[in-house]
Amino acid sequence: MSGKPDLDIIRAHIEAHHDRPVSLAELGRLVNMSPFTVQRLFKEKMGASPLQYQRALRAASLRKALKQGETVTNAIYNAGFGSSSRGYDGAQLGMTPARFAAGGRGEQIGWCSVRTPFGWVIVGATERGLCWLSLAGTKAEAEASLREEFPAATLKRDPSLEAMVDAALRVVAGEINPSKTSAALQIDLRGTAFQLKVWQALRRIPRGETRSYSQLARELGDPKATRAVARACATNRVAIVVPCHRVVGARGSLTGYRWGVERKRQLLEAERSGRAAPAAEAARSGVS
């Protein structure tokens, strides 16, 4: 044995061989554990089974290859999917690989932008739920952010999605708990197993409280993953509802917020005071 913790050995082996099937029995032999114990330990610490983690690694490899211009067929097989159908089913892209490669071409996303106490908010939603919530200083900036994220999707203005903005503000006010499923806030989040684990942890941070990136890494069972946690926060597509604003620097500094440090400060202050006007009241000047 190398002296490395068992979980690190298991994870490193999966990462080194993500392009082929890795059985629980194989992992068990590496660390002298039963397949059942390997499954339980990994899921407890990583928030996903070894198989789910391997699928997420393949999905990440597929996304990277598609963005770099590799053909869909080659990208699917090089990522370790045994067939094109498995690539489509297991890629966690939120759309087919071909659509992802084309910037979301063919995907239908409804959107609505609203002025709020925290600036302009734009939401985007697929039929599965909220896929984008961004904050900006102007209406034009807000709408541009959606087009940049989904450059080839079909975007359709939908004023009824104002209800999602209102629900997000109610998260800040403490009227909706983001860690629980809400009919008003169905979320369509797509990412690797680790990203999803971080985003789920963010939703469990109590309103009005903060965690440092290193604290969050420790809570996730991987103290060395501070930078990975920070990257997952930086790639969060759904502000407020997945409250990455509740993560701060080691000494409490308000650093690294995708939508601006001052806006991060405003959100935390609003959460601590319990005030956040509903969008319908805060945006009389117009919804678009």
Write the layout of secondary structure elements.
Elements: H1 6-16, H2 24-31, H3 35-46, H4 50-67, H5 72-78, H6 84-90, H7 97-101, E1 108-116, E2 119-126, E3 129-136, H8 139-149, E4 154-157, H9 162-172, H10 193-204, E5 211-212, H11 213-219, H12 226-234, E6 247-248, H13 261-273, H14 279-282
Parallel strand pairs: 1-4, 5-6
Antiparallel strand pairs: 1-2, 2-3
Biggest sheet, spatial arrangement of strands: 3-2-1-4
How many DSSP-defined strands?
A: 6
Proportion of residues in helical segments: 40-55%
Percent of residues in beta strands?
A: 5-15%
N-to-C SSE string, H for helix and E for strand: HHHHHHHEEEHEHHEHHEHH
Classify the fold: give the CATH topology of the largest domain. Arc Repressor Mutant, subunit A
Mean pLDDT, rounded to whole units? Answer: 80
Which architecture of the largest domain per CATH? Answer: Orthogonal Bundle
Low-confidence stretches: 83-97, 283-287
Shape: globular
- What is the H level of CATH, i.e. the homologous superfamily of the largest domain? Homeodomain-like
CATH class of the largest domain: Mainly Alpha
Return the structural class: alpha/beta
Measure the end-to-end span.
61 Å
Biggest beta-sheet profile: 4 strands, mixed
CA-atom Rg in angstroms:
20 Å
Number of helices: 14
Question: How many domains is the backbone divided into?
Answer: 3
List keywords for this structure.
288 residues, Arc Repressor Mutant, subunit A, Double Stranded RNA Binding Domain, two-stranded parallel sheet, globular, disordered C terminus
